[in-house]
Structure formats: C-alpha cells, structure tokens
Amino acid sequence: MFRRTISLSLIGLLAACSQAPEYVRPALSVPTAWPGLSVGAGVECRLCTADPLCRRKAVLCETPAPPLSSKTSLAAAHENWRDVFLDTHLQSTIAAALEHNRDLAISVFRVDEARAQAGIARAPRLPELDLNAQHQSSGTSSSVARNGFATTSQRYDVGVGVAAFELDFWDRLRNLDDAARANFLSTEYARSAFRLSLIRDVAQTWFSVRELSQRKELAEQTMLGREASLNLITHRRDVGLASDIDFQTATGALANARVEIANLARQLAAAENGLQLLVGQKMPDKLSPAPTDELLRDIAVGLPAEVLLARPDILAAEQKLIAANANVGAARAAFFPRILLTASAGSASSALSNLFAAGSGTWSFVPALTVPLFDGGRNQDNLDIAEARKNIAVAEYEKSIQSAFRDVANLLAARTHYLAQIEALQAGAQAQIERLRLVNARYVGGVANHLELIDAQRDSFAAQQNLLIAKQQALSTSASMFAALGGY
C-alpha cells in the first residue's frame, strides 16, 4: 500500500508538470488616449457622426464608459449595426450581404474546418477503443507432418483493445489540444472581423452609389440649364444680339456637361456592380432617397485599451499567440519519456460455437516506455521553431494593436477635418449658387456677358459636386469608424 501511494503521488506530480510557458498578455504599446482628445481616466469620449454638418467635435461624458469584453464585441458585431445604420434600405442591403456574400460563407466554412481540427487534436487525450474479430485457419500436409496425417486448425478471436494510449505526464497532448482550440477561436474571431469589414464595405459602397446618383442628377440638371442657355444664345444670335463665339462657347459647355454625365454614369455602374458583388444578389434599380442626418447615429469612442482589446481581429491575433505559446510546451515535452499503453481483452476458441464459452477469455497488457536518446537535434530544432513562432506571434499581436490604434486615430482626425471641410464647402456652394442666380439675371437683362455666365455655371457645378463628395467621404469615414471600434 505504501508503494502504491508513492507511485500514485509521483504520477500526480508528473502529470502536473506542464512544459508550456505561463501566458502573459503583452502590454499595450500605444498611448492611453486618442490623439487630439483630452480624456480623463475612465471617462468616455463621444464623437458625433450622425450628421456630417454637425459642428460638435468631441463631448466629454460625466459617467465612466462601461468596460468592454470579447463577448460584448462579438455581440455588437452581430447585432448593433442596425442601431448605427438607420436607413431602412441600407439595412436591407447589409442584411442581404450577410446572408448571400460568398466570402463570408467561405469564412464560416473555415470556422467549421477549424472546429473539426480542434476535435481531432483533442481525440488523442482519450483512449481509443477498437473491436476486433479474427478468424485464422492453418494446415499441415501429410508429407511434413510427423504422424503422416494432414492436419487443419481453426482459431476464432473476438476482443476489445486500447491502441497505444499515451499517458500525458508532461502535458504534450494537452498543449496540442490547447493550441488547436486557440486556433479555432482565432478563426472564429477572424470570421467576426470579416463580418464587420463586410458591413463597412457594403455601407461605404452604398454611400458611394448614392453620392454618384446625386452627382449624376446634378449634372443632368446642369445640362438642362446649359441647353436653355444655348437655346437663348441661338435665338439672340439670330437677331444679332450674340456672337458666334458665345454660341460656340455655349455649345462646348453643353458638350462638357454631357461628358460629365457619361463619366458619372460609368462610375455609377461600376459602383452598383461592386455593391451587387458584395451583396451576392441582384440589387433594385434605384436607391431610396434619404437625408444625410438620418443615415447614421452617434458612435461612442471609448479609451484605447477598452476599444482595441475588444476588436475581433485583435482577439484573433491574441489567440494565435496563445496557440504558439502552447506549441512551445508541446515541443518541450518531446524531450521527456513517453509511456504508451496497449491493452486488449476478449475471447478465443478453436471452434466458433465455443467462442464465448467459459474458459475462453484472453487478455494482454503492453506498457511501452520511449526515452529520446539521439534524434539528430530534431527535438531541439522543433523547440527553436516553436519559440521563434511564439516571438513572431508576439510581434504580430503588438503590430495589430498599433495598426488598430493608428486606424482609429486617423479616423478621428479625418472625422474632425471633414466636419470643418463640409462646413466650408456648404458655405462656398451656397455662395456660388447665389452668384449664378445673379449673373444669370444680369445676362438675361443684357448687363453681363456670356463668359461670366459660363464661369458662374462651372463654379456652381464644381462647388456642389465637391460638397457631395465630401459628404460621402464623411459617411464612409463613419462606416470605417464602426468597424474600427469593433462594432461597439
């Protein structure tokens, strides 16, 4: 009993000797606050993204921001987009993309593949039981038999066996299982990150289609105005009040408007085709009009540590680091002895009718010990590879956090500058529209010449086009902000 107790105690101590390094999450190598935003400890900063014309830059809340978690981020990535993108047509477009997009379907299948691989890695930790049935016949001819008579023998075997079950004293199999599970979780988080990027891409392409439609409509209205100007100049030339130069200038301006319409129609077709590819099915012919301030809601921007650690792509990178850390433990365990157990129990008989009769039982128990003595440096090389891959995973994890911080910081800066740019463009476009009205009235009254009218038309058209482009870019920035914040 004393020996048995000592043996069991030693086995328990050996089983607890994991060779994997203790996992410690690398420290965040980024600032504690976003550039340009003065945020106190535990205080949340909110950025208004509902209206590109909004003059608010940043509002400090009085209550602390709630801490984020991976579950919060994943739930937000799956559900909260409907609370951010408010236009019903855009919501239906995003929902169709989430259902029919082929790349997203591929990412789902990759998650299934990783889940199956994790199950395969877990299987060696449990005994593998096999049912075996065997019939063996052998005979001896009379020429070789001692008694001169031919003989025939039969043997029937049925048994259940355990095939080479490894006692995982050094957690080699456990570390391989942990690595496979971490790789599965990494794939799952990567799918959530791709889902966020798909929502962002659909929204951005939808905004682009909407902007190009509005610009094309503006160009068509401009063309109608220039056609009216050409008709007026033609009539005035016929009565001697306009020159051929004015007529040719008006004709060229009308041609330029038609060129711009054709150019915008080409871009619009390409954007619609891109949107259809993202959605994975045919889109309606026209988008429902919606005012700019009803497309998006406010998006909360938390502190960097809260935001970045909850992003699915950061969580995926961390799971890859955890897998690499576990693989180091498995590589270290290869230096220690391995104990394999093979056992079987069953029944054997020379007659099939007596196979399960009393006294026909058989059993075997074969423990095997393998001690690595010389392998040409293979185990050491495998350990060096595992260590190198862990260092690579650490660097990739830190780089992913730094890249994510840069993305959010750039979007915050872009958002602030777009607000100022749109405000200036709005004032400039309004001034050019008023200038065109005054010049047109002066031209009809015979005070202004045709060149002034052409310049006013061109400047008004360009100002309104630039305003539409800036609004679309601001909306696209907000869609990128949604994805960069992990959908929170």
Summary of the model, kept short:
With 488 residues, the chain is α+β, with helices and mostly antiparallel strands.
Key words describing this protein structure:
single chain; 488 residues; alpha+beta; Outer membrane efflux proteins (OEP); four-stranded antiparallel β-sheet; three-stranded antiparallel β-sheet
Which helices and strands, and how do they pair?
Elements: H1 2-15, E1 43-47, E2 59-64, H2 70-79, H3 81-84, H4 88-100, H5 102-122, E3 129-140, E4 151-167, H6 172-238, H7 244-279, E5 299-301, H8 304-308, H9 312-333, E6 338-349, E7 361-370, H10 378-444, H11 450-484
Antiparallel strand pairs: 1-2, 1-5, 3-4, 4-6, 6-7
Describe the structure.
It is a single chain. By secondary structure, this protein is an alpha+beta fold. It has one domain: Outer membrane efflux proteins (OEP). 60% of the residues lie in helices and 13% in strands. The protein is built from eleven helices and seven strands. The strands form two sheets. The protein has a four-stranded antiparallel sheet, with no helix packed on it. A three-stranded antiparallel sheet has the order 2-1-5. Helix 4 crosses helix 6 and helix 5 (102-122) packs antiparallel against helix 6. The longest helix is centred in the middle third of the chain and has 67 residues, at 172-238.
